């Protein structure tokens, strides 16, 4: 397979580089812990060379990157693109810099939606995952994570709007630094406690800052054992998120929700969606790489110099 | 004035002791940093003597205590009393221990409401404040704090139900340990940012875990200056709490909400209630002491041995 470009998924905590063929297939994949937050003194170029200098040197491959690398804390700030957005509009808004006087690195813009009068929302990296996940037109996507995203893709496959839920960060803060964590025993898994929490959260979406206190009272009263409390809280927070997102959009029970992610967290969202009476479908793996392929093709980034 | 009993407001972070007269007036008040969490090796009796051994020795005064001192982490666990609850039912459910083989210390039970099928809620200390705040029958009380409480007092002045909102703890966690704090400058005050946040929170009560993300995007887009972001987040969280509490109960705009507390935080709640179109009334100072007086009288704790 002939190399076409280097796909960089450069987020807050990790860096993944993939050499992509002209057909859009993975020739080789590498990963490193060099996320944006762990790069010292802004030595981004050194981190890049550490992971794939050979691809740059040997093939002169251009680079397509997405994620927090384009944030203010990243290498170069790639201004947000307003919704509705597609691979084509993103391809026209790339932020490009030259690497080693030889190849171009193109950073895909993050997206912005909302308004000054209510609130803005932003994403960086998830837009590329959505475009690569090959979701059906006119459907809803959820990308579970520290800051979960719910995005709406219209009939023309445009991302029209999205919303961030701080579910993962709240779970981390409440369990690691807050009073709820004090009654908890960590390390186990309690599916039943998760389901109880999710049902409570789904029913009490408009009482989020109240209902999380159930993870304390259920411990105090012995309703949920200490080892079940972490999953109980996880269920409450994910239940609140799912119900809130569904309340904000009139989501049809006919059409499955696209869950984009490939870890245990996605399974929790699938379970919560099921409890909410909705179907879900897990997106294919490698969504980010396929998103890069789509944007690269729209931008005419098709071949390495010496491939 | 003849001393009648010692009032102890013994919470998580502080200890206040007041020598109360037979008329229910303050003879002398003292405070110490010896909150339940700072007492080492369960040396509660030593902390008590350090603050008021003279009152015990000289007058043989009985003690009435409320707050976290009756929690599992406190001196002796005082089991929760179920709602509806009054000073009279609390007086029949005191947990009593003897101090120095001489005087009795009576711990007022915390309250519990809710149910196994939804969730339980608990309070410790706030019930005493409510009873002492002399609120009108059939009214709503809010006690701002790390864990704010909203309580409902019926025509017979019984606390019928209440709900905890983790507003203060969430504010602390999100600003001290979370990503929202990274864009913030602390130390100032920005009333306008607070009002903007409160309006957003009031309007988006069913989107709490989403709308707090506005405290990041408003910083990224320059909508709110870094020094205004702490108050913006405070407004969002208090707005969400006020709207959620009002949504859970059909609160009449005719009757003012009782705000029980005497600090800057209470002023924020008053501002948010006003933005929600409601009136509020600040409860009198010394509510805890007056709550102790009511329970003490119901329990027949009326005089010191040698007063």
Automatic annotation (TrEMBL), chains A, B:
It is an enzyme of class 2 (transferase). The keyword Transport does not apply. One of its GO terms (biological process) is D-galactonate catabolic process. Its EC number is 2.7.1.58. GO terms for molecular function: 2-dehydro-3-deoxygalactonokinase activity. It holds the Pfam family DGOK. It comes from the Bacteria. Keywords: Transferase. InterPro entries: DGOK (IPR007729), DGOK_C (IPR042257), DGOK_N (IPR042258). This is 2-dehydro-3-deoxygalactonokinase DgoK1. The gene is dgoK1_2.
């Amino acid at each position: 397979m002939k190399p076409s470009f280097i796909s960089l998924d450069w987020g807050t905590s990790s860096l993944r580089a993939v050499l992509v063929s002209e057909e859009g297939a993975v020739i080789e994949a590498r990963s490193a812990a060099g996320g944006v937050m762990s790069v010292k003194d802004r030595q981004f170029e050194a981190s890049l060379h550490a992971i794939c200098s050979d691809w740059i040197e040997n093939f002169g491959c251009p680079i397509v990157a997405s994620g927090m690398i384009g944030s203010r804390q990243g290498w170069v700030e790639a201004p947000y693109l307003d919704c509705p957005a597609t691979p084509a509009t993103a391809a026209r808004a790339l932020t490009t810099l030259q690497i080693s006087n030889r190849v171009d690195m193109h950073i895909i813009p993050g997206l912005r939606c909302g308004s000054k009068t209510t609130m803005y929302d932003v994403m960086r990296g998830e837009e590329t995952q959505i475009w690569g996940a090959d979701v059906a037109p006119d459907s809803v996507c959820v990308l579970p994570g520290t800051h979960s995203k719910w995005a709406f893709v219209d009939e023309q496959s445009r991302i029209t709007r999205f919303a961030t839920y701080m579910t993962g960060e709240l779970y981390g803060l409440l369990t690691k630094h807050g009073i709820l964590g004090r009654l908890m025993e960590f390390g186990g898994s309690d599916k039943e406690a998760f389901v109880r929490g999710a049902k409570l959260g789904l029913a009490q979406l408009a009482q989020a800052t109240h209902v999380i206190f159930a993870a304390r009272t259920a411990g105090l009263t012995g309703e949920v054992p200490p080892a079940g409390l972490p999953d109980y809280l996880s269920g409450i927070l994910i239940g609140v998120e799912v119900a809130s997102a569904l309340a904000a959009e009139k989501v049809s029970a006919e059409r499955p929700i696209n869950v984009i992610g490939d870890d245990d967290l996605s399974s929790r969202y699938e379970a919560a969606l099921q409890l909410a009476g909705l179907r879900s479908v897990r997106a294919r793996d490698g969504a980010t790489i396929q998103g890069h392929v789509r944007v690269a093709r729209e931008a005419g980034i098709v071949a390495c110099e010496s491939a």
